[in-house]
Design goal:
Length: 484
């Protein structure tokens, strides 16, 4: 054997320290962009084991991964962003024993393969399963909150408040286990399986320019896995903000209507909740921003307050303040709030649909019905105005009897439809007509305030809508590395 030692070629020698140095060098030079990238880098810099190589080189698991990565164009991505060329080149070198000095020794080639295969696998698996963009990060850094000059830290408005699934350490470990064994099983079924994602994939084939960007952004939205609320009702309400439309799904039935949403400066937040209650003829506690900008300068104009049915309440005591005593300074102090009386002419309309959220955002009727005739209905301070409030209430009160619905109609100032309702109105003409003040929705009905610039209309046909809040630009800015 000593005679053979002279035949050893340094370029063919596998040196574990050189392999490790190659892998770690690539990790240190990498700039992790996606969650999967960080998992890969942390694995090796934490002393993690090799996943793809051994003394015999690289086995067919690499080919299985490569086969999947060659099809990333179906998702609109470039093979370059998944290191396909680098993997193919080094895989060919390893299998042909095409090693030489410099950067292509056996150790360096296998080190690069180890790094690129793991990085590509993590990037693909995590991205396709959970999304390549974390909306809780990128969309919540779109709008800043006006500072008070006392801090340098920039604060941002929360615009995305939907609870979605995120990959954790346990999922990263499961991916590592998949790399070590069942690569095919790990790669199967990662992309969303819903019909909308499939339809977007088909459109991607011919889409160009801005349409292609929109398709890619909406495919990314489909990858975000929402944590669904418990749904005992079998019904749900979906508001798609760019479409300015509401869809109420109940079994095989669909109720749809136009809506008005938040303006660009006062965006409607994206959230998932559950409609629990409806209040009829609600009072409107006017937000401080509106009080400060629109109402406070007219604090002493009693006719303005009377005409709009406003009154002022002291916050600490809840007591109503004599209008003659109200001043602009009082309204700006924050110690008082302006309230609009409920009933006809109230800005919230005749009914409001309440669901838990941190933004004081609700669905409600409106006294300004003309808004539904516009094509662009970004008009509110964040709440959603609905075109058919009674029909939505009827949908939520699934199975309510005719008299219960007529009591609601009468309370909302609508014509009754039952004999009993008509008799009641005739007998109480000029009297109290508010038979209903609040109604529970039991079981509660899930509600989704979403943002899709390509979305099925009431017929199921995909339609394209304006990117009114500019979210497509934000999302594409985060995924364009995968595309270009």
């Amino acid at each position: 054997m000593e005679a053979f030692s002279g035949l050893r070629t340094p370029a063919f020698v596998l040196d574990e320290s050189e392999i490790r140095a190659t892998v770690e060098g690539l990790c240190y030079s990498a700039r992790p962009v996606f969650t999967g990238d960080r998992f890969a880098v942390n694995h090796y810099l934490g002393g993690g084991r090799y996943m793809w190589i051994d003394r015999k080189g690289v086995d067919l698991r690499a080919d299985t991964l490569l086969s999947t990565l060659r099809s990333v164009g179906d998702a609109g991505f470039s093979m370059r962003s998944f290191f396909v060329d680098e993997i193919e080149r080094d895989l060919q070198r390893a299998r042909n024993l095409d090693f030489d000095g410099g950067d292509n020794t056996a150790s360096k080639v296998l080190g690069r393969l180890e790094y690129h295969l793991t990085m590509a696998c993590f990037r693909y698996v995590v991205g396709m399963r959970f999304g390549f963009v974390n909306p809780s990060v990128v969309l919540n850094k779109v709008d800043t909150i006006d500072g008070n000059g006392k801090t340098r830290a920039t604060r941002y408005k929360t615009l995305f408040a939907i609870d979605i699934e995120h990959p954790g350490r346990d999922y990263a470990d499961s991916v590592l286990n998949g790399m070590a064994g069942g690569v095919s099983a790990m790669l199967a079924g990662l992309a969303p399986r819903d019909t909308m994602y499939a339809a977007l994939q088909r459109r991607l084939v011919t889409a160009t320019g801005k349409e292609r960007v929109a398709v890619l952004c909406n495919m990314e939205r489909c990858r975000w896995r929402l944590k669904e609320p418990v749904n005992k009702s079998g019904r749900r309400v979906v508001v798609n903000i760019p479409a300015f439309h509401l869809y109420a799904h109940g079994g095989d039935s669909l109720l749809d209507m136009r809506v008005g949403c938040g303006a660009r400066k006062t965006k409607t937040p994206l959230l998932v909740s559950c409609v629990e209650r409806m209040d009829v003829n609600p009072v409107w506690n006017i937000p401080m921003s509106i009080t400060r900008d629109d109402i406070a300068p007219r604090a002493t104009d009693t006719s303005y307050f009377s005409r709009n049915r406003y009154y002022v309440v002291e916050r600490s005591s809840g007591e109503r303040v004599d209008q003659a005593e109200v001043t602009e300074e009082m309204l700006l102090s924050g110690d008082y709030r302006v309230v609009q009386e409920g009933g006809e002419g109230n800005s919230l309309g005749r009914i409001i649909f309440r669901f838990a959220n941190d933004f004081s955002v609700f669905l409600h009727d409106t006294s300004s019905k003309g808004v539904f005739g516009r094509s662009v209905r970004s008009v509110s301070h964040g709440c959603v105005r609905v075109q058919k409030p009674f029909e939505l209430a009827e949908f939520l009160l699934d199975g309510a009897d005719d008299w219960a619905l007529d009591k609601l109609r009468i309370s909302m100032g609508l014509e009754p439809e039952t004999r009993r309702g008509k008799r009641f109105v005739a007998e109480n003409e000029g009297g109290e007509m508010r038979l209903v003040r609040s109604l529970r929705v039991e079981p509660c009905v899930p509600i989704y305030l979403l943002y899709y610039t390509i979305y099925p209309d009431e017929t199921g046909k995909l339609r394209t809508y304006p990117d009114i809040y500019g979210y497509d630009d934000v999302i594409y800015g985060s995924i364009k590395l995968l595309v270009e």
